[in-house]
Structures are given as structure tokens and as C-alpha cells.
Amino acid sequence: MMRRLKSLRMLRNKIVLITGGSSGIGKNLALEAARRGAIVVVCGRNQERLDRVVKKCLILSGRPAFAYQLDVLDPDQIDQVLDEVRHGVGEIDVLINAAGLGDMVAVARESRASMSKMLKINMLAVMYLSRCVAKQMMDQGYGAIINIGSLAGKIPTPNSAVYSATKAGLIQFDNILRMEVADYGVQVLTVNPGPVDTNFFKKADPDGSYLAHLPKWMMIKPEALAKTVWDNVGYKTREINVPGYTSAISWIYQAMPGIGDWAIKKFFDFQQNKKDL
């Protein structure tokens, strides 16, 4: 089984399904997979953007590429799309759950609707897609499930409580799913990036108050992140934390949470934010 999993290190002709594939991290993962010869299937709500990604993938890979309109909030749509992919394209070799939603505001300002939507997109949809595809991969004896988490799920920052909670839950979900499918030759890889230079923050942080506290050098280029992810598929890699030094920061926070809280609040000038509530 490990030998079959190793085959994913070379993506040529492997079927890769990516949710959130029309933009941001998902789009860059799709393009990098195409460069490596994969048959790319992108899913998302915006058909026009998906079609543009597919055209680029066709050029980069010389292989077929496909787009399926999908709202991950609808489990019936998920079932339908997975069924269409399996019958129209083939069995999925790699699943990437890259669809996500953020809202960088204090808990006291957070709306119930926003909290519910983040929970459903960032956790429940990922869990359901992972569950559906895991069953298929266990039957075929290999595969890789890649879930895009966040460093916010490991290192707390003010004004991101609900988003961070969904990502922390996802990390723990992956830890257990990994144990359950490992003997079937299925890799579960959790990717925890810091802030990525995409349009994510235009929706999550429209007034720029969250990003204002982050130096530009901390922003991760999505193209570089995509290469790092694919370089770890087909191996025993459990988790990728980007930038790498954040693994140490996370460990230090767990060891000394009181000092960690103080340092993080100072870094984000949280006292000033509290006055705005």
C-alpha cells in the first residue's frame, strides 16, 4: 500500500479534486498540480472563475481538466458532484479541501449567521467531503486527503475566535482521521499556513484592522505554498506549518500560555481594539 501511496509523488495522470478551486490557495494548488501533469477537477460556486482555472490547467498539463459548480454548504450537491466525478472522470486520487471562510472581528461583534456559516464551511463540509472520499480511497488502497487548516487553529490571535475555533477543530479531526485510514494507505495532510497573500482578507478583514498588525514580510505567497504542499504528498508527512518557525511558536504557547497571551495581545495592540467595542 505504501508503494501505491508513493505513486502520488508523481502526479502525472492522477485525479486531483479541489474545493475552493476558483481562487486563492485552491486555485494555486490546482495550477501547480497541472504543472505536474495531474488531471485537475476544480469545484466552487463561481462557474466563470472555475472555467478560467480549467483553461490554464489544460495549457499547463496537456491533460484533461474539469470544473464542477458546487456549494459545499449543500451535502446533496456534494454527493451529486462526487458521483459525477467518479463516473465522468474517475476515482479520486487526491482530495484537497481548500474552500474556507473567515471573519476577523471580536466575538462580541460576531453575528450568529456568520458563526454558523464559518462552522459549516470550515468544518462540517470538510468533514463530510473527507468522509465520503476516504471510503473510496480505503477501498482502492491508497490516496491523499489534504485539508487546509490555519495557524490560527494553533496560535490564538484577537478578533479571530470563531475562525480559529473551526480550524482548531479541523486539525483535531485530521489527527483522528489519519489514525483511522493509515492502515489503508491513505495519507491525511493538514496544511496550516499563516497569512497568505490572497483575496481572503478582503472579505474576512474588509477594514484592514487585522492585517494592519502584520508586517508584509509575514505574508505567504500562494504559489510557494502550493509547491510546498505538493512536495509533501505521497510521503508520511502529517502536517505542514508555514512559515516553519511557527511550529516552535505554537509549542512555546502551549508550554507557557500566560506569557503567550500577553505577547500576542501586545503584538496586536489588543487594548486599543477593546476600546472600540
Could you give a short description of this structure?
By secondary structure, the protein is an alpha/beta fold.
Radius of gyration over C-alpha positions, nearest whole angstrom: 19 Å
CATH fold label: Rossmann fold
Strand runs, count: 7
Instruction: Figure out the total of helices.
Output: 11
Strand order of the largest sheet: 3-2-1-4-5-6-7
Structural class: alpha/beta
CATH superfamily: NAD(P)-binding Rossmann-like Domain
**What is the typical, i.e. mean, pLDDT?**
90
The coarse silhouette is globular
Low-confidence stretches: 271-277
Q: Report the sheet-strand fraction.
A: 5-15%
* Assembly annotation: single chain
Order of helices and strands: HEHEHEHEHEHEHHEHHH
What is the annotated CATH architecture?
3-Layer(aba) Sandwich
